[in-house]
Structure prediction request, 167 residues.
Amino acid sequence: MQLPDAEQLVTALAESMRPHVGPDTALVGIHTGGVWLAERLHALLGLTQPLGAIDVSFYRDDYGAKGLHPQPQRSEIPFDVEAAHIVIVDDVLFTGRTTRAALNELFDYGRPGHVDLAVLVDRGGRELPIHPRFCALTLPQPLAEGQNLQLERDENSGAFSLRLIHA
Prediction:
C-alpha cells in the first residue's frame, strides 16, 4: 500500500477545519500522535485557547485485558471545558474505542458546549458509532488483520510521516 505524504494530509486537515473553528476553539490531542497533530493544527489555525492533551489509558474499556500502557502520559486541560467548543484530535481512527475513552475523560473536566473529532486518517474497522467531522484521508478499504497505521514525527525536523506496521 502506497501511503500519502503526511505533511500534505496535515495541511488538508487544517484547511477543512478552518471554516468551522474560531480563535476560541480548543484542541485536545490524544497522546501521542494526536497531541503532535493538535500542536501543528493549533499553529496552522492560529487558535488562542491553550492546547489540551489527554492520555486515555485509564479510560479504555479494555484496560482490564490490556493493562496499563508502559509509558502513560499526563492529561492536561488548561482551559475551562464548560460550554467550550472542543475538537478532539487523533492521528488514526480505528475502532472508535480511543475516541470514546477521550470523551469520557473530557467530561470529567466539565460539560463542553460542542465536541468535534478531527483525525488525520480513518482506517476503517469501527466497532462504535463514532465518525470524525474532520478527516484528511479515509482509506478505501479497512486495513487487514494485524496491520496498523502509525504517525511518526522526526525528532530533528518535526516532519510527519505515516508508516504501515505488520504485527
User: Anything to note?
Assistant: The two ends are 16 Å apart (CA to CA).
